[in-house]
Amino acid sequence: MQASQLAIGIDIGGTHTTVGLVHQDGTISWQQQLKTRDYKTPEAFIAALKTTLQPQIDRIGRNHITGIGIGAPNGNYYSGTIELAANLPWKGVIPLTQMVEDAFHLPVQLTNDANAGALGEMIFGAAHHMKNFAFITLGTGLGSGLVANGQLIYGHDGFAGELGHTIALPEGRPCGCGRKGCLETYASATGLVTTAIEFLQQLKQFETYPDNWLATIWQQKKQISAHDVFIAAENHDPTAKAIFDYTAKILGLSLANLVALTSPEAIIFFGGMAKAGDYLFSPTKKYMEDNLLSVFKNKVQILRSQLPQANAALLGAASLVWA
Amino acid sequence: MQASQLAIGIDIGGTHTTVGLVHQDGTISWQQQLKTRDYKTPEAFIAALKTTLQPQIDRIGRNHITGIGIGAPNGNYYSGTIELAANLPWKGVIPLTQMVEDAFHLPVQLTNDANAGALGEMIFGAAHHMKNFAFITLGTGLGSGLVANGQLIYGHDGFAGELGHTIALPEGRPCGCGRKGCLETYASATGLVTTAIEFLQQLKQFETYPDNWLATIWQQKKQISAHDVFIAAENHDPTAKAIFDYTAKILGLSLANLVALTSPEAIIFFGGMAKAGDYLFSPTKKYMEDNLLSVFKNKVQILRSQLPQANAALLGAASLVWA
Predict the structure, then answer these.
(1) ipTM for the complex?
(2) Is B84 in the same domain as B196?
(3) Is there a single domain that holds both residue B150 and residue B76?
(4) Which among A157, A253, A262 is the nearest to B153, CB-wise?
């Protein structure tokens, strides 16, 4: 009988990098965090990884480690590089896969965080045994990983799966990418807040400013968070419900179009906005169904991630080794 | 050395069914046509196939035939059935794969005609050696087959790849599918004609009806064909160019969104509308590029099918055996 094999997962985020040892059943036997911003150069970062990880590799034995999987913003599976990641301290094109291979002499795979998340769900989470599904992270922005025939759709250059940058409304809201109307300018925490402010300003303009929770918060703080909109909905604020409905209408149509192209068994949501729960997902599912071609109706599950939020990114990164 | 292997291709269309023997290099050593509508039941159709094909199988020897590939409207790869195909004489759900297997005792694969076309391009045509591309048939409607990681995206139910039924303009033109604003109501021969009539009616309404080729045709025939619009463009009719531009704007945006999701190496066009050539494709490419996320710009080739038009469907069907 073969000894149990482990994967090393490395999740690189703008603030923290988490490294850990992941077993094939999804248990994490060791993990540690580095502060990404402490390392001004990729070389310094690799040196810190070496100091942290090498004792673990020596303890377990190299032959019990199948490989290293890395999830990172703008990580490219094919080139093994991180390119122009706005929230990382290293500029330009970083050949991260090669650097980590040179440091540890183990097989290394790299992809972006949304793709890693999709693999995590496939191996350890809500997409277990699924071969066709979409994984969507709803946070500050909207990231996605698409799986078809049991494999991530990387596209010919490794950059596929950008649902957040499909144009949902031509000539719509300006997006950080330089274009207009991208889905993530509507369907994300940032988008929800923009919508909230637009709705509240419109109420004010028409002098129907209601004496409600959300309007009060806005008057007091002069700003609104996605969490405020959620709390307002909990308090039965009709404006909050209208804000979620507007968001859901745009997201639901985009999901219907995604289904027409890839016909997933499920669409799995992860991230801070997923906490908005039924306020967002019930109307989103309704609008998706309304816009589906009849052959797809009542077939596509809308699910929430089944990975523990705290370890999801690490499990996703490690999944690259098992996928 | 192994003897050369052959595939049997069966392309089922509303009018004709073509059967043929296809070699691995794409040469067709024998083919014959049946009139699909002559066979009122699937059983009668299978009997005719048997009469036509069995002598060829006996002549070549069963062990030299790898299998049978079938392309058919609404053909489902997973279930092996044709379901509710509007332009075929047989109603309901036809278990075609099973029926053909029972008749010939050879492995049988079935898919819809656009998917078969995509495989044909991958094995014999413009997508040779590509692992990530989109294949689009522009005819009366818009069909598509999407290939990622060298495999067709069938989705979990076999119905993926419906680019023509992504909603391009919410609340737009009524579509035969019962919804509104589907891409194929704009980007197809039918869509082009609808646009032409809208444009000509608008010219008339504003009393700026020009003394041009297209307007003259419309006045004389009280109808317009896609070919008329093409001829008008050849004659430098500005209305015709505006019609192509309008079509290209909608198609280009949809292609940009497709690229964001699947990042294909190329988008390959096939079908009657592909003959419109640069009148359609130059502005389509421009609008696609205008709407692309920067990481995808100037990377995606727009190509025309490299399969001979007369044999494309047959080669596509046979490709199912080699894919």
Answers:
(1) 0.94
(2) no
(3) no
(4) A262
